[in-house]
Structures are given as structure tokens and as C-alpha cells.
Design goal:
single chain, 100 residues, alpha+beta, 2 helices, 5 strands, 25% helix, globular
Length: 100
């Protein structure tokens, strides 16, 4: 993107982070259960692909998780790839259950 980062909003009623633009609505759908935010699906209009909208959605979700002190589950492949490429986000990922 050549201009300022797009504005990400949290549409809690729809369970998704959103970026609204003239080309359509980009979304990162989630399920918020207890202290965990399961990030399940990212969708960006074709006209906006490759322009940083998906990244902005993930970063908006991670900012929300930090502010609300919740962990994330990167169920969405796009989110999982982002987290793998940004090790500084590892502390936000919910641990797999290991205790009995």
C-alpha cells in the first residue's frame, strides 16, 4: 500500500475484524471463547489482494488480543503463516493442552 494503513474495526456482532473500502469489505472471521480468540478465516476482495489488507487484518487482531489479554489460535492458514514469519507474536498463541 502506498498510503496510510487501512483502518481495522472489530465487528463483534458479526465476529470479524473488518476493513471497509470502495473495493469491498476485507474480513478476518473469529470465534471468541473465554480467553481465546480463534482466528478462522481471512477474506480480501480480489481487487485488494497483495496490497497489505490481509496483513493489516491480522495485525489488528493481534493488537486486539494484546489489549484484551487473550491468546489466539491461528486456525486460518493466512494467520498461521503470518505468525510463523513473525516470531515476536509467539507469546500470543494459545498453548496446546498438555496437562491432564
Amino acid at each position: 500500500m502506498d498510503h496510510a494503513a487501512p483502518r481495522v474495526t472489530n465487528n463483534t456482532a458479526a465476529g470479524q475484524f473488518e476493513i471497509r473500502s470502495e473495493a469491498g469489505v476485507s474480513v478476518l472471521k473469529y470465534r471468541h471463547v473465554g480467553g481465546v480468540l480463534d482466528l478462522v478465516h481471512t477474506e480480501v476482495p480480489d481487487a485488494l489482494e497483495g496490497k497489505g489488507y490481509g496483513k493489516a487484518l491480522v495485525e489488528g487482531a493481534l493488537d486486539f488480543a494484546r489489549a484484551e489479554h487473550v491468546k489466539i489460535i491461528p486456525s486460518c492458514p493466512f494467520v498461521k503463516h503470518y505468525v510463523e514469519r513473525h516470531p515476536e507474536t509467539a507469546s500470543l498463541v494459545a498453548d496446546a493442552p498438555t496437562e491432564r
